[in-house]
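<instruction>
Derive structure tokens from the sequence
<entry> Chain with its tokenised backbone below:
===
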Amino acid sequence: MTDKMINYVKGYIRKVDLDYIVIENNNMGYKINTSKSTIDDLILIAKDEMVLINTVMIVREDDISLFGFLTEDELDVFNLLRTVSNVGSKSAIRMLSGMHYMEIVNIIKNNDHKSLTKAKGVGTKTAKRIIIDLNEKMDKRFPEVSTVYGVKKQNLINSDALEALMALGYSQKESENVLNEFDNKNLSVEELIKKALSYF
């Protein structure tokens, strides 16, 4: 069961662990399970900065958990993965921690089940089921993603930097303009963010 009561949590970063974060909002600490991609971006943000995490609350008979990500796109990929038989919340998180979510979208749209098996815990049978169930859904949700396989690493780095800047409160347009102000080739996410912040 999925409860949409909490669509996002906006607050201060109080803890960043291996597979979850704690965001403080109104004197309450929300433990939010997340992916390595989101964690890697949040590590670069100071703990006294306010961020917005897009969330979904998963309600079960014996557990209530929050899962969240910096972008609505990654949250949507997470929710789509969970609709596949034998792919639960934990499996979806493991997949998103092993691959960037846009790479997963690209792989599914290209019917490349072999590449999908590189994700932790995904066997051939599950990979084929994911592609069968989600190929059309991913195409509809992410029509702008190229169907020619191969997401460039630098594009993923630029995307992560953009997401981190937006999480800090800058608009998408402001962030994109700043990232276009300088040569961002061959820079890491951390280097991109530090350089971009000097332009604001």
